[in-house]
Amino acid sequence: MGRADYPLLLHVPDGKDPASSLVVDGYVAVPASVTAQPGNGCITFEGSDGTKTVTSADLRYRVSANSGTEDGTEPEPGTPAWQQLVDAVHTDATAAEQAKTDAQTAAQEAATSAANAGQSAQQAADNLQELKDGIANGDFKGEPGEDGQSPVVTVTPIENGHRVSITDKDGTKTIDVLNGKDGKDAPQIDDTTVTDSAPWSSKHIVDMLCPPLEESGNPVVCYPVAGYPLGVKASWEPTQEGSGEPSPDNVRPIKGRDSVTVERCGQNVIEFLSTNDSNSDIKIAVDAEKNITLNGALTRRTNIIIGMCRLHWVAGKTYTMYVKKVGGSASLGSGDGITFAYSLFATDYNHYFRGDTTSKNLDAYIARDVALVETELIFMLQCWREGTVFNDFKFQIEVVPGTTVPTTYTPYTGQTATLTLPCTIYGGTVDAVTGEGQNLYDVLTLTGEENWKKDDTYIVLNSATTKTNIPLNGVCSHFLYRYNYGGDSLFVDTFNIYLGATMAKKYALDEWKALLAAQYAAGTPVQICYKLAEPVPITATGAQPIPALSGLNTVLTNADSVAVTGRADPIKRITDLEDAVASMTTT
What we know:
Helix content is 17%, strand content 39%. It has helices at 80-91, 93-136, 202-209, 501-504, 509-521, 570-586, and strands at residues 7-11, 21-22, 39-48, 53-63, 152-158, 161-168, 171-178, 212-217, 220-222, 231-236, 239-240, 254-255, 257-265, 270-275, 282-286, 292-297, 302-311, 318-331, 341-346, 352-354, 364-370, 376-383, 389-401, 414-425, 428-431, 436-446, 453-454, 459-461, 469-476, 490-493, 496-499, 526-539, 553-557, 561-567.
């Protein structure tokens, strides 16, 4: 009979395999180098008949690398650590460009690193299962030896490891392979100090140069990292038609929303929809970059209608229109009235956005004003000078938020998300990226058939609603809503509708119910919109990712307000920091 030996061959991640190890009493010594380096390794079990290897089996393993941690502490301005940041900004602007790229992938890297441990464990489990399946299928059965007995290898789990059993003509031998110890933790990084030997972590650098961006308003103007996904959430409160205090003689219906739009564009908010081709004197051309070219001569004083535009602006906010000549020539003719003025008119010509009407500067034109309510506007050049000649006269137009004239032309680049709400929502929020939102208000419609009661002080409708509310917030279509038990108003509190003491004195109970019934029959029912103490979740359709544009981004909504989150552009932050430092040195 031949003697059977059971050596272990170890293949380590760095490729420098240690000498093979022999099994002694079912155990084997594992050299430290086996788990010294992160990566994939392999344990090979060999069975021999004394002359040659007759069977073998592989068990793969993985040594994982540990990641460092950081405490996120940020140095205060004025400290040496902060000054080092300022100095680094001035001396190495290219580092900021790299940080900008890092910011775009930071979220993906974080998710990937978080999944590494789970992937490693799953890989080990898969490899072990592969070995088990192979053994079960006979893949690792050796050829029959001289005695006709083929060695068989099996693997079974034990506490803190696995047991490998090898059965041949002499019986069964076992080897216990125990799980290795965890690798050493990576060095801890202290982000509160910066030295040549202890630099900041890459995450902390990204957080410093590209910090979280949070802005709200309507519109929101911000400078996020280009391509970084923006978070955009719109919100609104109940609105009412008309003006003044509501009363039975001044009914102000309450309005809700069935949909909400959110738009993101660059600094230029004017979008060309169509070009006018009907002008007999002047030929108009608009290229892909929205450069406008005029050719021809005016035979009379006229308004040159260039085309229809959509303005992505917010009514009542200040905007600047800047028109700049970029090629060709023009010469003014003679006449009186408007000399040379670029204008945006509502389609009924009752409202317009325009600057100086006596300007003779053909190279640049500036108009600053508040935005119109209308968004579909006619763009024209008003030139009441007969004989004016245009020879390849090319110009660009921008309309930007605020009062600052843009220095670099960018055509309109926009994206619009139209979010359809599940029902009419009188006040709430909706996320333009996920579609998730909240309904914050509920509406009660009164018919006069309710079980109203009156005592010496109040008129009250008990159990008007089953929903708890915030009594301070609400509106009413026909009466003043105000949380005041003694007032000339009504309100909702603890499930009941109350007429304040002063208001209750004006009506007998039957008169009050008759008023409600008459308004309901007339199609103008008395409605109360009250704020819920616990918002109701909703889901809208039409949500979509909204990536940031390069440079200035304008985000606006037809709701009341929009909140935007993202990562701040490091180049803009560096420019602002340099300007701030320069201003401190000159004062």
